[in-house]
Design goal:
Blueprint (H helix, E strand, L loop, with lengths): L2 H9 L2 E6 L5 E4 L12 H4 L5 H7 L6 E12 L2 E11 L4 E7 L1 H64 L5 H31 L8 E4 H19 L2 E6 L6 E4 L1 H17 L5 E12 L2 E10 L31 H12 L2 E7 L3 E11 L23 E6 L3 H14 L2 E6 L2 H10 L4 E5 L7 H10 L4 H4 L3 E5 L4 H10 L3 E4 L4 H17 L1
Parallel strand pairs: 7-9, 13-14, 13-15, 15-16, 16-17
Antiparallel strand pairs: 1-2, 1-5, 3-4, 4-5, 6-8, 9-10, 10-12, 11-12
Helix pairs in contact: 4-5, 4-9, 5-8, 6-7, 7-8, 10-11
């Protein structure tokens, strides 16, 4: 485009209007609006009424006024203009600059920007809602976990007590059914808690040195008995070239294999199940191990294989097989957390094979014997040891009293909250305190802190304290120890474990 063409294009968007002090148009090029010479500018558009005010205050020297983005219209012609008004003693000059297209573009950009801001705000609010929803869900699961575990502790505990009494065959069978269903309920709770922890990123991978062969032997011991009950075969194989001690998260590896094996036993009614463990590869101090679990069970339809690891996915609904549909979802999440791989192949009515590859490390050192659980015994005493049980659930109170009194070495007092526990401790000497953490008035943590810090009498301030609660896990244990407790036991607990921890703390206190 030539200079003249460029200038002409610019001129087409500029209009100059000259009016006298009365507002009569004397000259105009009528490029934008066709206002006639001799007509009043005040009749052209109401905006120009402001010129009257400018003329009234005019004082000899020429004055210029600028007005951006003025909407002017004349009939069907509508424009957005920048307006310049110049006033001197003889006349008024009005310059119109047509920026209609530019202002529409700017408005569009501003609108897009506003929409972008609104969308960002909407996304922020959605994320906030999801975070609050996740927080509520985790809190709900945590509370449900606690509320269910407390009565479940009583059920499992009393079943153990019942099993040690003289039962006839029918009563023994009923007790076994109650115990089996209670353990199943406990496993369902564990699944919900694990999914919640995985989603919230609270599961941490812990690398520790452990005796690898014992892990596989543990499965052999547990599932061989189950296989005998179902009248199917269970076979295990472990590659002799795998190092005796490995470094990895033993708990998560156990959980992965246990969930898959448990699933295999659910869906296999005849034939066999096998667990094969082989070395995949080894480089310096790192190695990959393959775990293959095969069964001759119901199998999985081909169209369902892609969703087998989805949460709450259950197949063979007509078979009345129990479960939450979370087991394999947990397996996949844990395998991913460990940096491993998992594949599944299956043929309906013939069986399913799970292939899991997991990474481990190992130390090039001589093997050391596995650390065994140290034995403790109660100090010699002519009198029984006195235990204070701080617990507000009546069923749990009765269960612990039954366990301790049946042992024959303990007297038991019961306090229903931290405040009452403090009162008991001030009046009577105790050899150990079993302290529930979730109590009314004064909770277990605060009561422990008061016992440890508010008394000069060492019989009170140094009494062994074992915390127990329905909230299981390493985090809860660490909180107990930081509060001043000597040990921790999670509900539901086994009687032998409870007695072991009590004897251990009393023996350690006597030896100090």
């Amino acid at each position: 485009m030539t200079y003249q063409e460029e200038k002409l294009l610019f001129n087409q968007k500029t209009q100059c209007i000259v009016v006298d002090h009365d507002g009569t148009i004397e000259e105009t090029d009528a490029v934008i609006f066709e206002w006639k010479v001799g007509t009043s500018i005040y009749n052209a558009h109401p905006f120009f009424e402001i010129i009257k005010d400018f003329i009234e205050v005019f004082e000899k020297e020429e004055t210029i006024y600028n007005f951006p983005c003025i909407h002017l219209e004349d009939g069907e012609i509508q424009k957005i203009c920048d307006v310049t008004i110049k006033i001197n003693s003889e006349k008024v000059v009005i310059l119109l600059f047509d920026y209609t297209t530019k202002y529409y573009e700017l408005n569009k950009i501003a609108q897009q920007k506003n929409e972008s801001i609104l969308k960002a705000k909407e996304l922020e609010l959605k994320n906030q809602y999801l975070l609050e929803k996740e927080k509520f869900k985790n809190s709900f699961i945590s509370n449900i976990n606690h509320e269910i575990r407390t009565p479940l502790t009583g059920i499992l505990g009393f079943i153990e007590v019942l099993e040690k009494t003289n039962l006839n065959f029918e009563q023994e069978e009923l007790a076994r059914i109650i115990k089996r269903q209670s353990l199943h309920l406990n496993s369902l709770i564990e699944d919900m808690v694990d999914i919640s922890k995985i989603e919230s990123g609270k599961i941490k991978i812990i690398e520790e040195r452990f005796l690898f062969v014992n892990l596989v032997e543990g499965f052999k011991e547990t599932y061989t008995k189950l296989a005998e009950d179902k009248e199917i075969a269970f076979e295990t194989y472990i590659d002799p070239n795998i190092q005796e001690y490995l470094i990895g998260d033993r708990t998560r590896v156990f959980q992965i294999l246990n969930n898959i094996l448990n699933n295999a036993f659910k869906f296999t009614e005849e034939g066999k199940i096998s667990l094969s463990v082989t070395k995949n590869y080894q480089r310096t101090n790192k190695l990959s191990i393959s775990f293959k679990i095969e069964d001759t069970g119901l199998g999985i339809q081909k169209e369902n294989l892609d969703t087998i690891f989805d949460r709450f996915t259950r197949f063979n609904e007509d078979r009345q097989i129990s479960g939450t549909g979370l087991g394999l979802a947990i397996v996949k999440d844990l395998v991913d957390l460990l940096g491993g791989e998992i594949k599944v192949t299956s043929e309906p009515e013939k069986g399913t094979t799970f292939d899991v590859k997991l990474p481990f490390k190992f130390e090039i050192t001589k093997s050391t014997p596995e650390k065994k659980k140290k034995k403790y015994s109660l100090p010699e005493s002519k009198k029984k040891f006195r235990i204070l049980v701080v617990e507000d659930e009546e069923a749990t109170q009765f269960l612990i009293m039954k366990i301790l009194i049946s042992h024959g070495s303990f007297f038991v007092d019961v306090a229903i909250n931290g405040e009452e526990a403090i009162s008991y401790i001030e009046r009577r000497n105790y050899d150990l305190v079993l302290m529930d953490l979730k109590l009314s008035k004064i909770d277990g943590y605060k009561a422990t802190h008061m016992i440890r810090n508010n008394y000069g009498d060492k019989v009170i301030s140094e009494v062994p304290i074992i915390g127990f609660t329905a909230k299981s896990g390493e985090i809860e244990r660490e909180k107990c120890l930081r509060a001043g407790m000597d040990d921790f036991i999670a509900k539901p607990f086994e009687q032998e474990d409870l007695i072991y921890k009590i004897v251990k703390q009393i023996a350690k206190k006597a030896a100090s």
